[in-house]
Design goal:
- This protein is α+β, with helices and mostly antiparallel strands and about 190 residues long.
- It has 3 helices and 14 strands.
- A 7-stranded mixed β-sheet has the order 1-5-4-3-2-7-6, with helices on one face. A 7-stranded mixed β-sheet has the order 12-13-8-9-10-11-14.
- β2 and β3 form a beta hairpin.
- The relative contact order is 0.14.
Length: about 190
């Protein structure tokens, strides 16, 4: 399945910037939507499809990756990135695999500060349901990440609590099944 996902990947997991970040919170001059990004050897990495403050989305041949603008260097010849397209695709796929392995019912979700949010109680193809105390909240599965093995979401506990609703009552535990009747022996 070739599903494009936008991932927020930490700079440490991707690449070292090619130059000191002069503008850490805004796009650098020379970075613009539609710009082709190349690696230091001149190979095409991808195309910038959007810029939002300190981050941009880079479209490779297989993925849309949300990355910090400080990971890029604009030059007179174009925009440079410290990884090849294959390296970036591999890093994204490894992050997706870690997230997929970590997204299981019962897994504990952490917010963007590291605080425990609560366990995942249900999953479907698009969403995950998280219990927060007596409440629940549904979040998009593709918003969940697993850097360093911990399941996280880029929201605070307070933001998730504000979006939560009371959990539906749990079904009463069923009585144990009666013991099977003895079978006659001959």
């Amino acid at each position: 399945m070739n599903v494009r996902k936008t991932l927020s990947l930490s700079i440490a997991a991707l690449a070292l910037p090619l130059a000191a970040p002069a503008l850490a919170q805004t796009a650098q001059p020379g970075l613009h939507v539609g710009a082709t990004v190349t690696d230091p050897q001149g190979g095409t990495v991808g195309t910038i499809t959007s810029i939002d403050g300190p981050n941009l989305v880079l479209h490779t041949d297989r993925h849309d990756a949300r990355l910090p603008v400080t990971s890029f260097t604009a030059t007179a010849n174009g925009v440079l990135f410290g990884m090849t397209q294959a390296q970036l695709d591999a890093a994204i796929e490894a992050a997706e695999a870690r997230a997929a392995a970590a997204i299981q019912v019962g897994a504990v979700l952490h917010d963007n500060t590291g605080a425990v949010v609560g366990p995942l109680t249900a999953l479907d193809a698009e969403t995950a349901t998280v219990r927060i105390g007596a409440n629940v909240v549904r979040v998009p599965r593709n918003a969940l990440q697993a850097p360093n093995g911990n399941l996280t979401i880029n929201l605070t506990l307070a933001q998730l609590q504000a979006s939560s609703v009371p959990a539906p009552p749990e079904a009463p535990a069923s009585a144990p099944a009666p013991a099977p009747a003895p079978t006659p022996s001959h």
